[in-house]
Write a structure and sequence with these properties.
Length: about 325
Amino acid sequence: MTGPTLDWDKLGRYLAGESSPEEAAAMRRWLDAHPSDAKFVAALDAAATNAAGAPSVDVEAALRKVKTRMHAAAPSPVVISWRRYAALAAAAAVLLVAGVLVTRRVPQTSRTTVVAARTYTTRVGERRDYLLNDGTQVTLGPASRLIVRGRVAELFGEAYFSVAHDPARPFVVRAGGATIRDIGTEYTVHNDSGEAVRVVVSQGSVLLTLGRDSVTLVRGDVGIVTPGGRLAANRGAATDDDLAWTLGRLVFRNASLPELTADLRRWYGVELRVTDTVLAQRHFTGSFAKESASRVVDVIALAFGAHVEQRGDTAIIRPGASPSR
């Protein structure tokens, strides 16, 4: 190449699309007048484009290393021919231009960035809608917490997600050791301490993962992750009751005592205690909308054939009918 007549910095700007109109026109005229050099530049442009697909390469470090070696070699008394010198100069220029192109062409999203976490919360008995920065809509259940970093969220409690789908950056929810990855989705996740993680898909599909196990859930499926580490999918098991909480209705279907305890704590701020081992094995089915906390625990106790002793925010269910009855 006729190195002295070519400005490599201008070439770098031209291939990166950052030249002014006048500079770009001048570069095109130069390339038209030097067809052999134009072929080389075209090959360089193609190589830089391919290299841009591998953002893990530290171009800046590579360029620093090349420049360091060039400067270190400068005092050397070894005499080389002008042809070899021209070749070395051309190679160095190629590295420089390719480095500029790769650096400029790597998408900003592929570079390492620190994303600040944002926390969304609700109080006891409160449901609240949130719109995340990426367009995802979230309905957060009572006494729940959602920590969001970019497209990754960690859930404590219950939430309904209407995800803004992005094939390049899936939306991921972490809950109770499991991860839920969207594939164009609307779904609800229930995650209370000591309970199974429950995922119900109302639209699209998700990939539910626990350790090395994973299962794809589609519309109408229910995914369960037990506290013991078992992953299961109940195909077509979803019902309207699974989303009733988003409308303010608390629904129990054959719920165990731990389930009752966790939901009453979040919805009413009531700590439910059962002192009898036989009662502790009972299950409850029923629904509540705007009932008071005392009414709810009374209904549960009646279903158990027991009575309630209220001590502040603690409701103790004991065997037998209420002494006042």
